[in-house]
Amino acid sequence: MGPAILIPVGINTVCFMLQMQYPSTGAFLGTMLLNFFLYFLTTQYAYDVLLGNPSWKAAFHFMRPRWVTLFCAVFVWMVAVVLGIFALIIPGILLLVRFGFCDYAVIFHGKSLMESFKESWRLTEGSFWRVLMILCILYLPDLAAEFLPKTNSFLVVKFLLLFLSQAMTLTTMLAVYIKLRDIKEYEACVRS
After folding, report:
1. Distance between CA atoms of 142 and 164, rounded to whole angstroms?
2. pTM of the prediction?
3. Which stretch of DSSP H or E encloses residue 146?
4. pLDDT tens for each residue of 73-107
């Protein structure tokens, strides 16, 4: 991916840490929106790197018409997961995995809100357990960071764990999305 991608991932990590440190202030909303913007811009840039034509400017212009749909899709997905977890833990986990690629459907294919959820559901059909295991592994550094003491001396360690987690999540979930999409395209070719 190259070192250029590490800058927004680092800013993302700082924003995430600020959200966790000061959840009741106005800074929470601002850092959440900045985190959202940078994460999806970085995702588009990473995809462009895989295609062999990375450009931050091109990624920004490509993403510009998708922001509202993307924000709505991620917001609906997060609300559904939280409600599913409150109802019972299992529906929340199911929705987390099955709708987990709705953002990629918006980013890379310009899908509408409903189409993005249908596409994510289609892609994860038959791969639920694999995707769940990958997510569990990816969130281990996040989990480890949560158990660190909330003192300044552990701030650097926490930052490094969260940075590692965000970088791993970005690259791995992009690769999983591409692999799932390729599998579904292959299955469609075999059926026809």
Report:
1. 9
2. 0.73
3. helix 140-146
4. 877 877 787 787 787 778 888 888 998 888 888 88
> 120-147 pLDDT, tens per residue?
999 999 999 999 999 889 888 877 777 7
**Cα dihedral 125→82→103→44 (10° resolution):** -120
pLDDT of residue 186: 85
On whether the CB atoms of residues 141 and 13 are closer than 8 A, the answer is no
56-63 helix and 27-51 helix, angle to the nearest 10 degrees:
110
Residue 101 near residue 180, CB atoms below 8 Å? yes
Each residue's pLDDT tens digit, 156-172: 777 788 778 877 887 88
Nearest C-alpha neighbor of 174 from the set 63, 82, 51: 51
The total of other beta-carbon atoms located within 10 Å of residue 139's CB is 14
Distance CA(156)–CA(177), nearest Å, equals 31
- What would the DSSP string read from start to end of 62-118? HHGGGHHHHHHHHHHHHHHHHHHHHH-HHHHHHHHHHTTTHHHHHHHH---HHHHHH
For the chain, the farthest-separated pair of C-alpha atoms sits apart, in whole angstroms, at 60
**Contact indicator for 74, 103 with CB cutoff of 8 Å:** yes
Banded model confidence at residue 3, pLDDT cuts 50, 70, 90: low
- Residue pair 73/116 in contact by the 8 Å Cβ criterion: yes
Domain ranges of the chain: 3-191
